[in-house]
Amino acid sequence: MESINVLLIGSGGREHALAWALRNSPSIGKLFITPGNPGTEFCGENVELDIRDHEAVLAFIEANEIGLTVVGPEQPLVDGIVDFLETHGKAAFGPTSGAARLEGSKSFAKEIMQKYNVPTGNFRLFERNEWAAAEAFVEDNETWPMVLKADGLAAGKGVFISKNKAEAKEALEYMQNDPALSAASYRLVIEEYLEGEEVSVFAVCDGDTATILMDAQDHKRIGEGDTGLNTGGMGAYAPTPVLDQDALEDIRQRIVLPMVDAMAAEGIPYKGILYCGLMMTTKGPQVIEFNCRFGDPECQVILPALETDLIEIMMASVYGKLDYIDIKIDTESYYTCVVLASEGYPRKYEKGKAITGIPADSDNLHVFHSGTKKDDDGRLVTNGGRVLNVVSKADTLSDSIHKAYDAVSNISFDGMYYRKDIGAKGLKRF
Ligand SMILES: Nc1ncnc2c1ncn2[C@@H]1O[C@H](COP(=O)(O)OP(=O)(O)O)[C@@H](O)[C@H]1O
Ligand SMILES: [Mg+2]
């Protein structure tokens, strides 16, 4: 492949991992990241662009002869940046806004799954003017827990798992009154509680077919043993002992391909990463939700395992050519990511703490940046809730966990917090 200039959108740990993988691609020309972070500066050039201003993004793409735009986070996808670039003949990796509704609207995803028999829990939808009916449904419900979800993007704050009637009523009231949620919960989804082991499966799609990259488990809660508040994610590991290659193929046949076919049949072909949040129940895998991009921090453990050129994969996705490439993944090793956060996160935390002890990048150890910045003296300081992602590779899950924590022990900043049990739920299954 000729070399290609790439524009990457985003600024988190996921985007540093993407920038790192793009930089390692044999086909990379110039790499620009907007806005990027101090970590992505090692991989390419950080540039300031208002990504909500699609015309400005297009002007940048034309001026810099960008051959591929890669969108990290969900919001710009839902806002339609891929549609806009496609209309102007520019290659952009990720779904159109219509297809990104699989993540942007939980009710849309549920309706598609129901229509095309993709396994998911039973559910009921309520429109905004049907709150009384929702209240009556809660009142009459007899099996607990029950799951209530606001419909739109709610940054992980729109899902309530209610153990009893009182909690469900409280959740309903909260959703109706919280201004952010009441905007998000234009519709309300009430669904069956699924029991089992939760696992995420990442597939790349080209509108017509799909290839599974890898499975992973994340750690959403702030506290050890999955306790405390929800966060953006405190760590991840991959692959998981929950799913072997046969189970992944079964998920591809029962969930991923039927969804790709369903979206094509609906006239909104799905391209890009399809992130399947699954519950492994006694009835088999059931979909909890779809996301329309890589997870953060799951991306940080998946990309290092990728043995095929990432740009080649992304171009095949954009141009409907996945059938022509053979995607190779390292399934022999294990990858662990420990997130280092600022004390207080996900609530209030301080910024501007000097960071020291980041080890050199090697084949089996990477430190991806999330919330960092250079201060006026050029020192690296904390600048967010999640600060760094320490990613290790080893032959066993246990070794990869140890290796990650060894590296963590050298890094320090004032108020550094991390979970000490990343990967422990995987170890239990060996
Ligand atoms: N039907 C369900 N049964 C059991 N647990 C669920 C169910 N739906 C969601 N959850 C739990 O709640 C978490 C958040 O729900 P999810 O639909 O992924 O919303 P979001 O990621 O948008 O906040 C899931 O990761 C899962 O642990
Ligand atoms: Mg989720």
Protein topology:
Elements: E1 4-10, H1 13-23, E2 28-35, E3 45-46, H2 54-63, E4 66-71, H3 74-78, H4 81-87, E5 92-93, H5 97-104, H6 106-115, E6 123-127, H7 131-140, E7 146-150, E8 159-162, H8 165-177, H9 179-184, E9 187-192, E10 197-206, E11 210-218, E12 221-223, E13 227-230, E14 235-238, H10 245-265, E15 271-281, E16 284-291, H11 298-302, H12 310-318, E17 334-342, E18 365-369, E19 372-374, E20 380-382, E21 386-394, H13 397-408, E22 416-417, H14 424-427
Parallel strand pairs: 1-2, 1-4, 2-3, 4-5
Antiparallel strand pairs: 6-9, 7-8, 7-9, 10-11, 10-15, 11-14, 12-13, 14-17, 15-16, 17-21, 17-22, 18-21, 19-20
Helix pairs in contact: 7-8
The structure holds adenosine-5'-diphosphate (ADP) and magnesium ion (MG).
Magnesium ion binds next to loops.
